[in-house]
Amino acid sequence: QVQLVESGGGSVQSGGSLRLSCAVSGYTVSSYCMAWFRQAPEKDRERVARLLGSGATTYADSVKGRFSISRDNAKNALYLKMNSLKPEDTAMYYCAARSWWSSDYNYWGQGTQVTVSS
Predict the structure, then answer these.
(1) Are 16 and 114 in contact, with CB atoms under 8 Å apart?
(2) How far apart are CA 22 and CA 15, in angstroms?
(3) Which residues of 79-115 are buried (b: 16+ CB within 10 A; e: fewer)?
């Protein structure tokens, strides 16, 4: 059974930093594809960052240069370091994993809330 458990969210002021963590079990973080998504109230879900098994990363334009996705293979964990946070980064953040045989992300965490005040 695959489980993804996010932590590290909270409330910060604009310009601050947070690091989100995703503890993973039942799925190897380096195996295929993992990502961070976010969803703000009344907005569509957005993929923020993606990390492939090869180590390649991609970022949404809105977070390029400010956010960094990484993993710790020994801990089987995924991270999202967020710097220079803005009020528009306020959202629920989700960790997600995709199996090689799936056409979409098929495992999701419960989410962790990030709130950035101006």
Answers:
(1) no
(2) 23
(3) bbebeebeeebbbbbbbbbbeeeeeebebebebbebe
Contact 66, 48 (CB under 8 A): no
Residues 7-43: pLDDT tens digits?
Answer: 999 999 999 999 999 999 999 999 889 999 999 999 9
Report helix, strand or coil for 89.
helix
User: What is the Cα 62 distance to its own chain's centre?
Assistant: 14
- Cα within 13 Å of Cα(49), Cβ side: 22
Q: pLDDT by residue (tens digit) across 75-86? A: 999 999 999 999
Q: Where are the beta strands (DSSP E) in 15-111?
A: 18-25, 33-39, 46-52, 57-59, 67-72, 77-82, 91-98, 107-108
Q: How many CB atoms lie within 10 A of CB 12?
A: 17
